[in-house]
Amino acid sequence: MKLTLVFFAVCVSVALTAIIEEEEKPACACTMDHTPVCGADGKTYGNDCMRKCNDVRLLHSGKCENDLCVCTMDYEPVCGDDGVTYTNDCSRECAGSNNAHDGICDDSK
Questions:
Q1: How many CA atoms lie within 13 A of 70 on its CB side?
Q2: Does residue 30 or residue 108 have the better pLDDT?
Q3: What is d(CA 83, CA 105) in angstroms, rounded to the nearest whole number?
Q4: Contact status, residue 46 vs residue 63, Cβ threshold 8 Å
Q5: Residues 81, 32 contacting (CB under 8 angstroms)
Q6: 96-105 per-position pLDDT tens digit
Q7: Neighbours of 93 (CB within 10 A)
């Protein structure tokens, strides 16, 4: 019984520490500037500010060569700031584009 209580106390302590650490992270506010950078995690970020907000080391400027993205085939179109309509938000992020708006891009511009 005592071992169970000790185990429970340790679990609660670890959970509370994780919650407190999450709350201590400052909020990030980045511009929608599209200047892709490659993070050390192998992901392409829309700009350097977005990379820093995710606390990832910079690998190089530009898109990652072997960016590993796996997206669903759900059709929920979004328009990227590059003027391309993407199948869904995941495919837009994989392309390194920022979200201009939900829905199909207006080709009449």
A1: 0
A2: 30
A3: 6
A4: no
A5: yes
A6: 788 889 999 9
A7: 21
